[in-house]
């Protein structure tokens, strides 16, 4: 739409028109807005168009990234960044873990904060649900990856949020019994179906319900190596409780240190930004392939053929 129409739609005061024009200029430069070449409206006004990036910010787009942007820009998440210098200059260890800038700012970890502030809990859950929608459609839409779930009788989605991912898996595999396992304040009020989906509240550092397979999507990147080891050991307990050899399916981004040296593309920038986000907000990290392999090797897991990692011995 042309600027005049935009001003009306956004209910901008006419005295602020020139400011909107300047905002639009930077949005064009950053690729969030495009302009139409053929100007054929009566006033010869430039017309603005959405781009692929701004489409992802539309409220009615099922893959909308708006909740992620709102969360990232919320003062609760921004303030810890201002603590970085203070945090870097002092030793602030609490047992096995360093207190992260989020704790320097708020005095508690993000998950405890979310349990006390419903607005943040809702926003955070919305962010993970949108991402789960995108990832589940990719994962379950591709036979190569879908195969990972074939033959499983039960699956627990540990830290599964409000269950978007698990719901999609349960629908694709109606014979598999699926559990969304997350902190009590996250799953409170959610109900499964009578067939193959249920919600369980708990703490993954204490005990995980027994099952054939565990899904850890965006979980290990939230924690340091020692904490990941504790989570993986709890997973191991859960998948071997029934006397079976189960498996853990890990979905996390892979930062490739070696390739990154020569690459400056958006993908690498996003990975490195997420790594900083993990450092500041939760005390985790985005890992390279090597680091992830170390972690799972240390927890004495074998890699399966379709894991995307080298397979030391084929899964029998
Ligand atoms: C980054 S989110 C990932 C959510 C979901 N797996 C996804 O990818 O959409 C991390 C999740 O771990 C959960 N979580 C944090 N600490 C936990 C704990 N001790 N036990 C179980 N879940 C936990 C959080 O509540 C949150 O839902």
TrEMBL record:
Annotated O-methyltransferase C-terminal domain residues: 81-302
InterPro entries given in the database record: COMT-like (IPR016461), COMT_C (IPR001077), SAM-dependent_MTases_sf (IPR029063), WH-like_DNA-bd_sf (IPR036388), WH_DNA-bd_sf (IPR036390)
UniProt source species: Stylosanthes scabra
Record's protein name: O-methyltransferase C-terminal domain-containing protein
PROSITE patterns referenced in this protein's UniProt entry, alphabetically: SAM_OMT_II
Keyword entries, A-Z: Methyltransferase, S-adenosyl-L-methionine, Transferase
Lineage: Eukaryota, Viridiplantae, Streptophyta, Embryophyta, Tracheophyta
Database matches in Pfam families: Methyltransf_2
């Amino acid at each position: 739409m042309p600027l005049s129409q935009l001003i009306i739609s956004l209910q901008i005061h006419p005295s602020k028109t020139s400011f909107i024009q300047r905002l639009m200029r930077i949005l064009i430069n950053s690729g969030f807005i495009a302009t139409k070449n053929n100007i054929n409206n009566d006033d010869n006004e430039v017309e603005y168009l959405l781009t692929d990036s701004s489409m992802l910010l539309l409220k009615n787009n099922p893959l909308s990234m708006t909740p992620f942007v709102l969360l990232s820009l919320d003062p609760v998440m921004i303030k810890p960044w201002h603590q970085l210098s203070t945090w870097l200059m002092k030793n602030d260890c609490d047992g096995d873990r360093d207190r992260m800038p989020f704790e320097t700012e708020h005095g508690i970890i993000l998950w405890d904060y979310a349990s006390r502030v419903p607005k943040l809990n809702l926003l955070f859950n919305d962010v993970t649900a949108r991402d789960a929608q995108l990832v589940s459609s990719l994962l379950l839409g591709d036979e190569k990856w879908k195969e990972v779930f074939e033959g499983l009788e039960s699956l627990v989605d540990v830290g599964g949020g409000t269950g978007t991912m698990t719901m999609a898996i349960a629908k694709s595999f109606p014979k598999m019994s699926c559990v969304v396992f997350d902190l009590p304040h996250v799953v409170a009020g959610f109900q499964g179906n009578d067939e193959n989906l249920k919600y369980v509240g708990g703490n993954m550092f204490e005990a995980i319900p027994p099952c054939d397979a565990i899904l850890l999507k965006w979980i290990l990147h939230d924690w340091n190596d020692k904490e990941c080891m504790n989570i993986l050991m709890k997973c191991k307990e859960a998948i071997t409780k029934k006397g079976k050899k189960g498996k853990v399916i890990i979905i996390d981004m892979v930062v490739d240190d070696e390739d990154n040296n020569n690459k400056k593309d958006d993908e690498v920038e996003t990975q490195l930004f997420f790594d900083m986000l993990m450092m500041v907000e939760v005390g985790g990290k985005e890992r390279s392939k090597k680091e992830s392999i170390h972690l799972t090797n240390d927890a004495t897991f074998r890699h399966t053929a379709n894991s995307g990692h080298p397979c030391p011995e084929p899964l029998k």
